[in-house]
Design goal:
Blueprint: E1 5-8, E2 13-18, E3 25-30, E4 36-41, E5 44-50, E6 60-63, H1 78-88, H2 98-102, E7 106-113, E8 122-125, E9 128-131, E10 137-143, E11 146-151, E12 165-171, E13 180-185, E14 208-213, E15 219-221, H3 229-252
Parallel strand pairs: 11-13, 12-14, 12-15
Antiparallel strand pairs: 1-2, 2-7, 3-4, 4-5, 5-6, 7-14, 8-9, 10-11, 12-13
């Protein structure tokens, strides 16, 4: 089992390090111009994100109903569970520590956020405002240089927030460094459903717990196809050194 390192650095932020090792969850990308990003369990992703050939055109985010979610019950080392529960006490996401154990290798910041996600009239997908988004796309943050959304696994239901929400960071989201996106996904399988088949209502009180990737495969550069490798490395390094912690501050404010 991977030895995950969890280090609280204050009431609102904790550092998380996932070592290299076998993994079955994260992001798989294909294509260069107009790449496709499959997010979720490898081979059975729950979300498919398509960039267009032109950086000015809207991205598409498709929810795949046959895609798998992370199991609600997964073995977690006792020290990790205890450290997380101590830090997350009083949040709406005291459960779901197994999400952390499932993350792909990399460094992360966990953020307790008092921001409330809300149903918007439109969402920003790449460099285009798209009206009437589905019920599973909620707006969290829209303040340069960051844009944040919360996305659920069922297009006709809002995301549940009673566990950590896993972030995917898209640098240069609108085709320039003026705005970077953080898309936070509700990846955990539901433990119970109503007889009607609908998901139980999401937790509505306490802080959200948001997983902000700092390094690793969950940080992508939306302009990678139009940039040199050196430019992409520079942008990701800037994210690691400076911008990730700045986003954490914006989310926890």
């Amino acid at each position: 089992m991977k030895e995950v390192v969890f280090n609280p650095v204050g009431f609102g932020v904790a550092e998380l390090s996932i070592p290299d090792g076998p993994n079955d969850f994260g992001l798989r990308s294909s294509g260069k111009l107009g790449p496709t990003h499959d997010f979720g369990v490898y081979g059975a992703p729950r979300w498919r994100i398509r960039q267009q050939m032109s950086p000015d055109d809207a991205w598409e985010i498709e929810t795949l109903p046959d895609g798998r979610l992370l199991p609600a019950h997964r073995s977690v080392p006792e020290h990790l569970e205890w450290a997380y529960l101590t830090w997350a006490e009083g949040s709406r996401a005291e459960s779901g520590v197994s999400v952390l154990q499932s993350l792909p290798p990399g460094d992360y910041l966990l953020v307790r956020s008092s921001l409330e996600s809300r149903r918007p009239a439109s969402v920003l997908l790449g460099n285009e405002r798209v009206p009437n988004p589905p019920a599973n796309m909620l707006l969290l943050l829209d303040e340069e240089p960051f844009y944040g959304m919360v996305l659920g696994p069922e297009s006709d239901n809002p995301p549940q927030t009673s566990h950590p929400l896993v972030g995917l960071v898209a640098l240069n989201y609108i085709g320039s460094s003026r705005l970077h996106a953080a898309l936070f996904f509700d990846c955990l399988a539901r433990e119970a459903r109503h007889e009607s088949g609908a998901s139980p209502p999401p937790a509505s009180s306490g802080d959200l717990v948001l997983v902000v990737p700092v390094t690793g495969e969950l940080v992508i550069d939306a302009m990678a196809a139009y940039s040199t490798k050196e430019d992409v490395m520079r942008d990701k390094d800037d994210w690691r050194r400076r911008l990730a912690s700045r986003l954490a501050g914006a989310l926890s404010a």
